[in-house]
Amino acid sequence: MGLMGLRSYVTRRLMLTVPTLLGVTILIFAIIQFLPMNMRAMMYITDIKELGNLPKLIQEHGLDQPLYVQYLRWLQGVIMDHTLGADRYNQPVYDAIVSRLPASVELAIYSIPIIVLIGVTFGSAAATHKDKALDHMTRLLAIMGTSLPSFWEGIVLLSVFFAGLGWFPPQRWSPSVNLYVSDPNSSWKWYTHLITVDGLLNGRLDITLDGLRHLVLPVTVITLLNIALIMRVMRSSMLESLGKEYVVAARARGLTEKEVIAKHARRNALIPVITLSGLLAAGLLTGVVITETVFDLKGIGAYAAESAAVPDIPVILAYALLSGIVFTLANLIVDILYAYVDPRIRLE
Amino acid sequence: MDVISKLTEYRVRLQPTLRELKLIGTRIRSSRLSILGAAIILFYIALALLAPWLAPAGHPSQGGDPYMIPKFGILVTPQPPGSTVHGNHALFGTTAWQYDIYYGCIWGTRSAFRVGLIVVIPSLLLGLVLGMMSGYYGGSLDELFMRLTDVIMAFPSLILDMAFIVVLVPLGVQRLDAVMISFVLVGWTNYARLIRGEVLRTKNEDYIEAAKSIGCSDLRVIAKHILPNSIYPVLIMASLDIGTTVLGVAALTFIGLGAPEGYADWGQLIAYSRNFIFGRPDNPFGYWYTFVIPGLFMSFFTLGWNLLGDAFRDILDPTIRRK
Fold first, then answer.
1. What 3-state class would DSSP assign to B283?
2. B167 in contact with A at a CB cutoff of 8 Å?
3. Overall pTM > 0.90
């Protein structure tokens, strides 16, 4: 059995993913088809001079061909050449997304561990203290986190901690740092485009600290927003685990309550949290539209938000396509991990 | 005699329904937080119903539409609560361009319910019909609908909403209408999944077999036997989605995709405050009222729904409900 079971599970799971991925591309393609042909051609303009020559673009991208030919050519363009159209500045959307990625990634890599750590700790504490004060407090925290609109949270935090106290400013780094890192004559070198990492690599601890200072508020907002789900799942999974026979057996063997919880109950209760954390990571890595906008972070989420109001159609559709694909793949990876950790899943 | 037997029949027939409602009722009453939630929602319903009296419309700047916020001037700088702007009293002050915050908050309640209902009811109906058909008939129809829900659910919902909206708007659809249409197009999937599961659960019960064997039509079986036994979880889910929908629409409005300029919407009021959140040089909290007041209106609204929802989650969970 063992890994053989895993292999057949992975195969079955892949078979389910392929139609979903195809469906994701078909849906986005279908949405584009609602636009008249000229507008569809305009999505590809990378040079303002091409505006006068739409028929050429129509021919070049096969926009007058039968639907299935168009779809295949479009899909080929997306996969092979990353052709996602051009934004309102005639910059290819793909390049813009790549250049905006670091801000979103940086936000995600600080938020995810904090969310998971706090969520797991509070969730399992709520389960072991079920119906006591601690349980009610975490429940209240969870409800508050999901009730407050994230953009309002951000604004209130900025008002108090930036305007009022001057501690945590918006944007990714201070103006003085900006002068330094964007000066071609300075000794600054970009390695990862993550300011907190590159600060260390350049031997400039002050720049790393400046980056961290700018991350405090957005990470707080994202944590408040996402912690409820992890906490709730951890709590119920832990409650279930605490009632299991192996926990009773561990107690019967005379282990201390601490050992029973840490080694027997919590470890097994963590499995559903893995799933959730994977999806959370996918969500944060594809950008958080509202939080990045409020804190002026210039990530891909903020790029989508700026483009939405215009509306800059190619950007939004490319962003939706990208998110759909990333989420489908994240689901796949998480399910496979899940099956790897918990052999019972493979047999279903 | 006939009347009495009819009454008895109805009583017998309604008994499961009554029992279910009673169970839900006791559960709600046994949780203090959910009573608080219900009280908050009732308060907002009252606000929405009384809006025309609490904040009478009729300012010339509204152009006859009570859902537009009156504009007391053209000055950009907000005015503090209680001030008088061009002869108009502004209880909560005015935000950028002299939009009256008090009016916007009160009528914002009404438009929150309006948007919530206009989105949730069609989503529910669409999900109900497609989910029922999917579960009842099965086969390739089921396969088709379920793959469709897979695809729609593969996207983060707000992002797919944005994709629909940016295409609908250039085609001439009004902005707020486009938002609501896109929410329906994305939102029906949850209900369809849930109702399908419920139908699959009840489909093979003996009483359904019995109904079919005496020659009931499909429609009759669905309407009279399956629906009453599977509708509760879906209805509860739908009512709770009003809070989530309002939050989603407000987020879109905040980035400029939702309600049109001047529309009474909490998200809109908060968006207007964006240039003033850092206050004045002499007082960093000088314009607090422009975002704190509408934000509180909105937060308590979603808090009410979430408090109710938290209790409902336990009620709906079949593994713990009868304990």
1. strand
2. yes
3. no
